[in-house]
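2024-03-11 09:14:02 INFO receiving multi-entity request
2024-03-11 09:14:02 INFO entity count = two
2024-03-11 09:14:03 INFO echoing inputs for audit
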Amino acid sequence: MLEIKNLKAGIEGKEILKGLDLTINPGEVHAIMGPNGSGKSTLANVLAGRPKYEVTGGSVLFEGKDLLELPTEERAREGVFLAMQYPVEIPGVNNIYFLKAALNAMRKHHGLEELDAMEFLQLAREKMKVVELDKAFMNRGVNEGFSGGEKKRNEIFQMAVLDPKLAILDETDSGLDIDALRIVAEGVNTLRTEHHSVLVITHYQRLLRYLVPDYVHVLANGRIVKSGGKELAEELEQKGYDWIDEEAGAATGAGVA
Amino acid sequence: MSAVVTTELRERAAETFAKLGWPTTRIEEWRYTNLARLQKIAWRTDDAVAAIDSPASLAEQAAMELVFVNGRHVRTTGSIATASGSVAEAATAPQDGLTIADWERNAMVALNTANAQDGARIHIPGGVVAEGFIHLLFIGRADGTDNIWSHPRNVITVGANAQVKIVETYVGSGSYFTNHVTEIVAEESAVVDHYKVECESLSAYHVGNVFIRQERGANVTSRTFAIGGAIARNETHVVLNGEGTSVTLDGLFFGSGTQHLDTRTVIDHVQPHCESLELYKGVLDQNARGVFDGLIIVRPGAVKTVSKQTNRNLLLSETAIVDSKPNLEIHNNDVKCNHGSTIGQIDEEALFYLRSRGVGENEARSLLIFAFASEIADRIAIEPVREQIRRALFRAMPERLPERRGGTR
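2024-03-11 09:21:47 INFO inference complete, emitting structure
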């Protein structure tokens, strides 16, 4: 589904990803962990196509298509969804109107009929239950006046409505209390099928207790330096990232020598 | 209740205009707006007007609608009657000695006074709460000619404890010039909700002067929407002449192409314990230019004044311009006044957020522009008028966006 090869990217002339390889197959949940500044958010933003991030090398194929060639909205329509670390507040743009426009743009892209207001509301109500968001949120401005936890739940709600093939969660767990964390994880879990893949980007292991990954990767200095099963996350929790840095440093040193 | 414009007043106003001349950019209040183009045209009034149907008509929704074409009254539908007769009629105003419009110093008001044509004469007797709203529709038409001007003059008096909602709409086709004056006197504890919707033809010229005088405890809201016109100048002058009055002045100017949309407001706090709240927003695309010049004067005796003035602008292209000039003139220390002005572009973070959910770039931009503008549009308390403005904004947007992309990338 997603095939990243030797991806190099950065921001404002500074290279942050220095040759990243990652393959995600349909139905798999991958977690990327790593210390601050290792390039986790850069990866998420590059995949979603955020302006300002420059790709300087490598390739990203999504279902065989060159993802990096597509504008942001087309990546979304193809089925890539980024749950953002810092969802923006957009006063004046109605939450539900916006989401309906998004879903219908996606349906149109796939040659499906657009949903009318009633059909959409029915779908939205159903999905809101998943993340335990109150109906009142639907008619507010996008994220307007939402608490941190509500914003993250709104991300998952949008994800549930848009039903992406690949969901990327960029530190969705940061700033969440345990209840919100559980709700978010359950929301994501309801979307897990053999056709849906998830890439969880996180600093901590706690989200992974509820949202159990198939694979865990450690990102350090812009590269994946270690991969393993879910037990790797526990190891990182206990030992921190220092030992990884040492291993990575040693590996790089060996390469140079 | 027929009103007569005295020949003498017309003559004096004509003399004043001859003395003042057309405003030039050498005058501080006209620094950003050049009327030289208008000055060169041999204007004439239209003497053969006929009633026409306009999509801007709100005859079905309004309690009463008066329609004017090129400065002449052509139709009245509906009525609001009281014991003393209809509250509104078409008339040629003003009467000498009764006008609150400053024709002695304001050249364009002098020009209007000298040439005053039909307008609405509205009088809400004391204690009367007018149901619904009164719509004044002014249609400019220049079929095959481009030197028709009109000088509508509206005079509105709202008696003590009376209430009324009034909407002025200016629309048209072709190149013509509307120079209107509207006078509103709100007597003690009157409540007035006033809207001015300027949707003139994109090749028309519009100068409008609204004068508001409020007596003790009167509460006036006046909102101005400037969407049309090649050059449009919208002035609102408010005198808070009684204690405890409150005025809300809001506005939106929304221009593209080479439109020039100029807003000037003057709020004069004369008496103590008055409040003025002002929020004007500007959206400018392509090569359009917007001006906000807001003056708040607080007189020595106007203690306990509360005043807040805000102007926010959104520029959609690198060639759009806005001049924002908030101005406070405070002559006593016992006041709470603040003013602020911002000029910004589309929020790139918000744009990315919308696009990342699959909304196309053009639609996402439209949504954000509309969100910015709707803060003002949503304040319109009259639903059909709010809908009309929303439609006008929607109509304006998709046409503008593809051009903008080509022009600024």
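2024-03-11 09:21:48 INFO post-check: Chain A touches chain B at residues 48-51, 71-73, 75-77, 81-82, 84, 87-88, 90-93, 98-99, 101-103, 105-106, 109, 141-142, 158, 162 (CB under 8 Å).
2024-03-11 09:21:48 INFO post-check: The CA atoms of residues 6 and 19 of chain A lie 4 Å apart.
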